[in-house]
Specification:
Number of domains: 4
CATH topology of the largest domain: Porin
GO molecular function, one term: carboxypeptidase activity
Helix content: 10-25%
Strand content: 35-45%
Keywords: Carboxypeptidase, Hydrolase, Protease, Signal
InterPro entries: CarboxyPept-like_regulatory, DUF5686
CATH class of the largest domain: Mainly Beta
Pfam family, one: CarbopepD_reg_2
CATH architecture of the largest domain: Beta Barrel
Signal peptide: 1-24
Oligomer: single chain
Number of strands: 42
Largest sheet: 18 strands, antiparallel
């Protein structure tokens, strides 16, 4: 409060001074930028002081500073660690600009540590900062909003190095050397390959926690990307929210402990460095380092206001020794300011990622994110419905006059940044980079645009398969894009098997009724080969596993003719509601039959049937961020709160040929949370019941996995179609320690391996009526294949594994603890223990 009152008094004095004659002016303003004399880049956090006075300040992340003094001196001192100190004369003028250039120092200073009684005083300060966190944490606000400017730059660098024995750079590096480039901070050439600017209005509220970003203007240019809506949403402020008052920062799906979080004393060591002036505040300058260099933690400097014990500025880095992939250094620089309420708020954040070079002479890359907050309004939350959708694009977000960007930028761009904006267009049009860009888009999206037809070919992942039923399966898929229509989305595929000589096909059409709230209606017709136990209902969004399931031996195959009509609408507050009407047929290619119930008039044993279903699915994801990829909505996931799904299916008899009346209820929940220094836990819970008598293909079949690959949502030692249930409950658990143990073993810490454990439990049963529906033989006299069900003992498998092997591989050792001797009706013996591999890309 004292700090707030002091700033208010100073502000009133400055306001009053504006109305008195200039001869009575009591302040002098000195501003400018401190740059590296060799590279011209701004130097952050440089100390700027008036000679002979205690007044001073530090430069921001771009090297810019502004200083107000009451009394003139003869010179201004510029000091920064690693550079030679410079002094500049001060003129007798009310306002003056002094731009400073510093040269790198050739000598290194020896460290001198002086401790007060009882240890380094930095610990007393940080302990008080942690105690007062709730006083200054902006999450305490009922709501806030601000104007956000975000700039992202990507560069390829380190391609001009000489190889051993004086050899010239390799062919790729020589090719890169012929492209347009700028000069990086080390005075070496760097090729800009991505530049974006986004201006948006950002809103947030608490109770319930909601955020919304309204993107007013955005421009994106780069290799392999286009100025589309998806990129414009990913480059906005929603994905650049970093709050050091939280216990950890979630950076690119990595949890990095905050030096002023609850685990500060467990993870970090601190050292008091100095006391300096930052603007109108006097701050403690405290250095912090991880206790173990291999831990995923920050190294850097934090500036703490001496009066309020609140965060003023922080410069935090994660180096290559930490357990993080593909990164030489990750750096977060952040400025915090006091709001009228007394809370602190991050007004400028710069995140820099210097990527690791795969080999000593290969090119590297640097990515820089800059986010600023201006015109902050606090404690004026909007109605809850206002925050849906969480990211929204203005209709004219692509259209902006160049003067618009000059107006909304917080500071003028440096000469190198201006040149990057111009050079990136030249780079992306070079034939070699065009090809590279197309490969990037194909790998990310899976679709190949067909010229100017507004049609895309794909997804290529499903283009070919080989199995015992179809032989060689070839598939051709097409879809339209927004160039075709911003309301209609058409897609489909045609597939053919060389062995069964059958055509399979799909045609779908979707129409966007409204974009706010998001409302779509669609129809799909499909005729294709399916297999019991492996379907779209239980595979989910695992496209790799869905493609793999088309290969090899397909047991219990059948043809399905499906018609699906649906409508989906966002209801607000995280709810999404889907209603669907589905009609499908079952035509088995294996000995199958069912005996109708006694109450049915037709008691003949039958092998085919038709179902008509009315489906209601309610999805609740309170903090999920949804992106719009052209005419399709894409989930960016939820960070802190669970996602719930309730699905109710009603079978309609004698409607559109439906043979059965039944109900099916299924509930699921997915969530992840951090367990302090122990890592992060992921889990899912599911349960369901089918209180009806129906053929077993309509019951619940848990997803098994007979491949050599680990599948996250499958029971990895369960065979396909091993168990059938009409009531069930499941828990799937995985905990990643993030290298907690391996980081402490000298011979293993350099490998950056990460340990994990898994457990999956399923309980279930089947009623006697559903078992009684299976006759001994079908109409052709063939023995009918039945199924197995769980007994009172639950199915249980546990595992342990190592992730991040060679930075991309994961190996799981899995033990099946129950039903180890089960053969069941599949005829395939179970595997009680297996080693399974998978690929995972993460920082």
């Amino acid at each position: 409060m004292k700090h707030f009152l002091r700033n208010t008094v100073i502000g009133n004095l400055l306001l009053y001074a504006c109305f008195i004659p200039a001869v009575a002016q009591s302040f002098y303003t000195i501003s400018g930028q401190v740059t590296d004399a060799a590279t011209g880049e701004g130097i952050p956090f440089v100390s700027v002081a008036v000679k002979g006075q205690t007044t001073g300040t530090t430069s921001d992340v771009n090297g810019r500073y502004s200083l107000q003094i009451k009394q003139l001196s003869d010179s201004l001192l510029i000091l920064s660690l690693g550079y030679r100190t410079r002094s500049y004369p001060i003129l007798e003028q009310p306002k003056q600009v002094i731009d400073a250039q510093l040269q790198a120092a050739a000598t290194k200073l020896q460290e001198v540590k002086v401790y007060a009684k009882g240890g380094d005083p930095a610990y007393r300060v940080i302990r008080e900062v942690v105690r007062r966190r709730d006083q200054f944490n902006p999450v305490q606000l009922l709501g806030y909003q601000y104007d956000s400017y975000t700039k992202i730059e990507g560069y390829i660098n380190n391609f001009a190095q000489q190889r051993k024995n004086g050899k010239k750079p390799g062919p790729i590096n020589r090719l890169l050397g012929r492209l347009p480039a700028i000069t990086d901070a080390n005075g070496k050439p760097a090729i800009p390959v991505f530049v974006s600017e986004t201006f948006s209005n950002f809103y947030a509220r608490s109770n319930p926690d909601k955020i919304k970003e309204y993107v007013q203007k955005s421009r994106v240019t780069g290799v392999g990307v286009s100025d589309g809506g998806l990129i414009s949403q990913l480059t906005g402020a929603s994905f650049q929210q970093y709050n050091f008052y939280r216990n950890s920062l979630y950076v690119f799906r990595k949890d990095i402990a905050s030096p002023i979080g609850k685990q500060w004393e467990t993870i970090y060591t601190f050292r008091m460095k100095d006391t300096i002036a930052l603007g109108q505040s006097t701050c403690y300058e405290i250095e912090f380092t991880p206790k173990r260099v291999t831990d995923l933690a920050f190294t850097g400097t934090v500036w703490i206001d001496t009066l309020s014990m609140s965060l003023s500025k922080i410069d935090a880095r994660v180096g290559k020794q930490a357990n993080i992939n593909f990164v030489d250094e990750l750096r977060v620089e952040q400025d915090w300011e006091t709001l009228p309420s007394g809370l602190r708020f991050p007004t400028q954040t710069q995140l820099t990622i210097d990527t690791e070079q795969p080999t000593p002479r290969s090119p590297g890359a640097v990515i820089r994110f800059l986010t600023t907050a201006q015109n902050i309004t606090e404690n004026e939350p909007k109605e809850v419905g206002f925050y849906n959708p969480s990211i929204e694009l203005a209709d004219d977000f692509r259209e902006a006059d160049p003067n618009f960007w000059q107006h909304v930028r917080p500071d003028a761009l440096s000469p190198n940044e201006l040149r990057a904006l111009n050079v990136v267009d030249s780079v992306r049009n070079v034939p070699f980079m065009k090809v590279a860009g197309e490969i990037i888009k194909l790998g990310v999206l899976g679709y190949k645009p067909l010229g100017k037809l507004n049609i895309e070919l794909g997804p290529l992942l499903y283009s070919y398969a080989s199995n015992n039923v179809e032989g060689q399966r070839f598939r051709l898929g097409l879809r339209t894009n927004t160039g075709f229509s911003r309301k209609w989305l058409l897609s489909g595929y045609l597939a053919y098997g060389t062995q069964d000589q059958q055509f399979k096909y799909n045609a779908s059409i979707e129409y966007i009724l409204s974009r706010k709230p998001w409302t779509v209606v669609g129809f799909r017709h499909t005729y294709d080969l399916e297999r019991i136990g492996v379907s779209g209902d239980n595979i989910g969004n695992n496209s790799l596993f869905a493609a793999y399931s088309r290969f090899g031996t397909i047991r219990r195959p059948y043809f399905q003719d499906e018609n699906l009509f649906y409508i989906r609408r966002e209801m607000g507050r995280g709810f999404t509601q889907t209603l669907a009407l589905r009609n499908r047929s079952f035509e088995p290619l294996f000995p199958f039959a069912f005996q109708p119930q006694a109450k049915d008039d037709d008691q003949r044993v039958r092998s085919t049937y038709t179902t008509t279903e009315l489906i209601s699915e309610t999805r609740f994801a309170p903090d999920e961020v949804l992106l719009q990829n052209d005419n399709v909505r894409v989930s960016a996931g939820a960070v802190r709160k669970p996602i719930y799904t309730l699905r109710y299916t009603l079978g309609l008899r004698n409607v559109m040929g439906g043979d059965f009346a039944y109900q099916r209820i299924a509930l699921g929940m997915n969530h992840s949370f951090r367990v302090g220094v122990l890592g992060r836990t992921y889990y899912s819970i599911g349960a369901g019941i089918i209180p009806a008598t129906v053929p077993y293909p309509l019951l619940y079949s848990p997803l098994g996995n007979e491949s050599s690959f680990y599948v996250g949502n499958a029971y990895n030692l369960m065979n396909y179609f091993e168990f059938i249930n009409d009531r069930w409950a499941s828990v799937q658990f995985e905990h990643n320690f993030g290298g907690l143990l391996f980081n402490r073993i000298p011979l293993l810490r350099q490998l950056k391996w990460r340990e994990l454990i898994t457990a999956k439990v399923l309980v279930g049963s089947v009623t006697a009526d559903n078992l009684a529906m299976i006759p001994a033989t079908n109409a052709a006299g063939q023995a009918v294949e039945g199924f197995s069900s769980l007994k009172q003992t639950p199915y249980l498998e546990v595992g342990y594994g190592i992730n991040n092997i060679f930075k991309v591989l994961r190996v799981d050792a899995i033990h099946r603890l129950t039903y180890r001797d089960n053969v069941g009706r599949t005829g395939i013996p179970v595997t009680p223990f297996a080693i399974k591999v998978s690929g995972w890309m993460s920082l």
